[in-house]
Prior knowledge:
- The protein is an alpha+beta fold and 241 residues long.
- Helix content is 20%, strand content 24%.
- The chain is built from four helices and twelve strands; from the N terminus they run ββααββββββαββββα.
- It has helices at 54-79, 86-89, 168-173, 227-238, and strands at residues 10-12, 31-35, 97-105, 117-122, 128-133, 139-142, 153-154, 163-166, 182-186, 192-200, 206-207, 225-226.
- The strands form three sheets. The protein has a six-stranded antiparallel sheet.
- The protein is globular, with a radius of gyration of 18 Å.
Amino acid sequence: MKLVTKNHRGYTALHAEKLDTTLTTRGDSKESFYIGPLTDDLNQWPLEEDLPSWRCTMETYHQKLLSSVTKLLSLIALSLKLEEDFFEKVGALIEPLAFIRLLHYPGDLNSSSEEIFGASAHSDYGMVTLLVTDGVPGLQICREKSKQPRVWEDVPSMSGAFIVNIGDMMEGWTNGLFRSTLHRVLQPRQDRYSVAFFTNPSKDCIVECLESCCTESCPPRFPPIKAIDYLEERVRLTYGL
């Protein structure tokens, strides 16, 4: 709690957030630690004597994953018949708002009849997310998020591989061609750990429908929006601010 979250960096306690804001239950059953961009000195770090080499490890991981995401975005650009460096040219990667989130889902703590999720149903906010897990089941996706009732599928764990989620802003750019992934985490029967790497565009980047992804018969479904405005609104709803 000495490192409780400030500026979206540091520790978030059990039930501090509720990702599905339509639920009337208490917050999600998880605790986490956020590490944001390494360039702005806002991150909170444990003392070196308490966790030797931990800061160095996290900073190296952040740098390596940001490099991997940059390569992944170039492949997405090529798949959309854009130039390989499209996302760099539109300013998404000038100072990307990239966050590591270390997540712990405690084993079943719920002795009441209230339905509690490790992470209630949501989509990620940004461009893409890379996720690694410890193999404990719980993560589920819904392929057809606009249909009711929702059908949920378990996501298998694959050693040595990242799970890749498309985020809301990528859906906005592509007019729904690449759909953001609706997903949730069931409350596990045993402790579950995962590490997410959320990649959001630079704060002043404008996310708007690509010309190649809209036609007269398929006009833009989402209005243009500045990245930071979308992020702040989603965070406000998640934390009930």
